[in-house]
Amino acid sequence: MAKLKLPAPPLPAALQPKPKRPGTAERVGPVEQVKEGAISAVDWVDERTSVTGAARWMMFRKVPKGTNWFYTLGSSTLFAFLSQATTGVFLAMYYDPSATRAYESTRYLTNEVFLGEFVRGMHRWGSSVMVVLLFLHMGRVFFFGAYKYPRELNWIIGVILLVLTMTMSFTGYLLPFDQRSYWATIVGVNINGTGPIVGPFMSDFLRGGAEFGQTTLSRFYAIHMLLVPGALAALIGAHLYLVAKLGTTAPPWLKANEPQEFNRERV
Ligand code: HEM
Asked: Which of 16, 80, 114, 252 has its CA 20 to 30 A from that of 65?
């Protein structure tokens, strides 16, 4: 027979912990103080904006059963974009978008600036990483049928993100202004010119006139630095809003439970 244990008798009143006297604050360590400070700051902002409601809506969502590693490809692409944006800011601190100074400023950045070669390498390789991740993410969405109703608009936004990412690669390639980037971009602009109807206008627009030179470089720099990153950031925001609103799609091999089976289980 199992032994029954009686609960311990209550402590006599003299031994019970004394209630705190009003006004005597408990001594807290620095970690608690930092935590308190952070909570107060968040509370202060939240009281004026109610922003934590939106943050909670965005971050604490139900994910479908069967969610797997393939679902991390979108966030990986996002991380690659953020890394490109960050390293790009540091490159822009040294880069000079002038036809006579661009090559020299890039050489200086690579050979003389502390960690310059490393940051340039991260940006250069990161661009390829972003394109590869983008295609893998797109493949995941395609093979899981995640482009279907009601997510068609998110697929369309994705296609625009793809075109914009390609534009980043194309415009960025010219910026070092060495022999390879110069001639490769001439080929690229000429290929653009062979497109039907809009082709010649496109190549004129990209060159910034009839000749390939300073105006072309300035134009590519402005597109690479301002126009496309701004559009990418805004569209990624819209893309993520739709992901949060609609939720992600379950893997196609998961079948929904039969309603009857579900009912039987619950009854
Ligand atoms: C800069 C590029 C992109 C970023 C940062 C990005 C980011 C994301 C993230 C974080 C998700 C949610 C998690 C996931 O399913 O992986 C997602 C979902 C999705 N993405 Fe992208 N994406 C990009 C490009 C694209 C492209 C090129 C397409 C298609 C043409 C696309 C179509 C979709 C669709 C349809 C969903 C919903 C998937 C579902 O409901 O399961 N995205 N994206």
From this structure: 80
Tell me the CA distances in angstroms from 253 to 143, 145, 200, 256, one per residue in order.
11, 11, 47, 10
Tell how far the Cα of 74 is from the centroid of ligand 1, in angstroms. Answer: 5
CB–CB of 200/193 below 8 Å?
yes
Q: What is the mean pLDDT of residues 124-144?
A: 98
Residue 85: pLDDT band with limits 50, 70, 90: very high
C-beta 77 within 6 A of ligand 1: yes
Beta-carbon contacts of residue 167 (< 8 Å; ≥ 6 apart): 223, 228
User: Exposed/middle/buried for 234, CB within 10 Å: 0-12, 13-18, 19+?
Assistant: exposed
Q: Assess whether the C-beta atom of 249 lies below 6 angstroms from ligand 1.
A: yes
Cα 135 to ligand 1 centroid, rounded to whole Å: 10
Q: Residue 137 Cα, ligand 1 centroid: separation in angstroms?
A: 6
Q: Does ligand 1 lie within 6 Å of residue 130's CB atom?
A: no
| CB 103 near ligand 1, within 6 Å | no
* Alpha carbons 127 and 138: distance in angstroms, whole number: 17
C-beta separation of 248 from 71 below 8 A: yes
Q: Which helix (H) or strand (E) holds 156?
A: helix 152-174
pTM of the model: 0.85
Confirm or reject: Cβ of 159 under 6 Å from ligand 1. yes
Class of 67-246 in CATH: mainly alpha
Alpha carbon nearest to ligand 1 atom 27, residue: 158
Distance 143 CA to ligand 1 centre (A): 13
d(CA 240, CA 258): 31
Q: Are 226 and 171 in contact (CB under 8 A)?
A: no
